[in-house]
Specification:
UDP-N-acetylmuramoyl-L-alanine:D-glutamate ligase; about 30% strand; 10 helices; 4-stranded mixed sheet; alpha/beta; 9-stranded mixed sheet
Length: about 325
């Protein structure tokens, strides 16, 4: 496999992201005293910043690796919504599919003092998407699918991803032969029937399959259960320091299992690693890699981002360099 050729081909691929858009707000400061009003630290704010979160971070990963991306989801008619849209557009992410809803934009605010998170508070409305907003989303998806090579569903359980939406998506994608990858959420597994790929972590795979994963035997049982229960083409279980396991359907009811060891040398922060995995997999597969090779490329991308602090993305040249070690290590 010419991994460099695959990575270079990312720039010709278009990916549609569907999911929960989140604005990550960071407030940085220092603590020098305890409040006289309550036994809590007083944080003197020195600066604040905004980053793309949720489905928006998946889109950011696609852009960072050289791909092209459109995104659809819900924001509120508020300041946070304007900031989120501006951040996306600054990165040349197509925002035509973003719909303004009555609910507020989902914002996760983290207060950081002396390199430690003091508290996090969320502003969100998780009610199920329906009515005009759902109709607008489905109208855009139907129009956009023929123009894209793959679809990524980024489910953060904030109301956008519903059974009705997935059923419509599968119908539209099937008509165009479009690859659908889903980053799942516990409690929603029954939504994801007939998609191309589901990428749960160990905890999600355990709860989604109803099988506690504690060894290789239970891992195999859980992966095969998900594959059959969801009638999907493949399941990629991310296993942290133990790497990944890919389950894919073959002929005559055969299930092929590929275990991929981790390549991460140092792990500083796993934030956003799942976003990197699904973004890289979708790009690699549509660029011509097999499912197993796409998983291997995604594994290397994840190994890069967990070695950095905060949500990060793997640049193409760094990814190619990492993949080059495969040949040298053989």
């Amino acid at each position: 496999m010419d991994f460099a050729k695959i990575v270079h081909a990312f720039k010709n691929k278009r990916v549609l992201i569907i999911g929960d858009l989140i604005l990550d707000r960071y407030i940085f400061g220092k603590v020098s005293r305890i409040s006289p009003e309550a036994p809590v630290p007083v944080v003197e704010v020195t600066r604040e910043s905004f980053l793309l979160g949720g489905a928006a971070n998946v889109a950011n990963n696609i852009i960072a690796m050289g791909g092209n991306v459109s995104i659809t989801g819900i924001i509120g008619k508020d300041t946070a919504g304007r900031v989120l849209r501006e951040l996306l557009e600054e990165r040349n992410i197509n925002t035509e599919g973003i719909i303004e809803d009555r609910r507020p934009t989902t914002v996760k605010t983290r207060i950081i003092a002396h390199n430690q998170q003091v508290v996090r508070f969320d502003k969100e409305d998780k009610k199920r998407l329906e009515g005009k907003s759902l109709a607008g989303l489905l109208c855009y998806i139907k129009k956009a699918i023929p123009e894209h090579d793959a679809v990524i569903v980024s489910d953060y359980k904030k109301g956008v991803i519903t059974s009705a939406l997935i059923k419509a998506l599968v119908k539209y994608a099937k008509a165009n032969g479009t690859f659908i990858a889903v980053d799942p959420k516990v409690g929603h597994f029954h939504f994801y029937k007939n998609v191309s790929l589901v990428t749960p972590n160990i905890m999600e795979a355990s709860q989604g399959s109803g099988i506690e994963i504690k060894d290789e035997k239970s891992l195999l049982k859980a992966g095969k259960t998900l594959l059959n229960r969801l009638s999907c083409r493949s399941v990629l279980i991310t296993r942290g320091e133990d790497g990944m396991s890919l389950f894919e359907k073959g002929g005559a009811r055969e299930i092929k299992v590929t275990h991929i060891p981790t390549v991460a040398k140092k792990v500083f922060d796993v934030t956003g690693a799942g976003d990197t995995v699904i973004a890289t997999f979708a790009l690699a597969y549509t660029a011509g890699a097999s499912l197993a090779d796409a998983a291997m490329i995604a594994n290397h991308a994840a190994g890069i981002v967990v070695g950095e602090v905060g949500t990060a993305a793997a640049a193409p040249d760094v990814l190619i360099k990492s993949l080059g070690n495969i040949k040298r290590n053989k």
